[in-house]
Amino acid sequence: MQDLFKQLIQYECGLHHRDRQNFQILDQRLHPDFKEITKSGWVVHKAQMIEALLNDTDTDIIQAQDFQVQSLSDHSVLLTYQSHQINVVTQAQYNVALRSSIWVMNDHGIWQMIFHQGTTCAFEK
Fold first, then answer.
1. Using CA atoms, how far apart are residues 33 and 23, in angstroms rounded to an integer?
2. This prediction's pTM
3. For the DUF4440 domain, which residue ranges apply (predicted)?
4. Total count of domains within the chain
């Protein structure tokens, strides 16, 4: 089970960096019924999220930490963590958020994110 948890954390962090502008990976990682509730309260579905990520020109770094992983069933996992962005010029941290993702195994044995929510923290580090 620990190997699965490590794999899902790797998938999640990949969406923050290298996989973020790769259509094939995004299409594979996000479940067809994917939904995100953004930290500003918008509901975004798979096609909208892929389009937004492919067009994202932000060069600031996203860091994630304090991962907690909980098995919900044999085919679903809840992943929670804290993230923040780092300005590449000033190195200042901003956009601290608590995040949760639900990953499910599809009929082909592939893990996909079906739900994500980011909530802005009331504090900054």
1. 17
2. 0.91
3. 20-113
4. 1
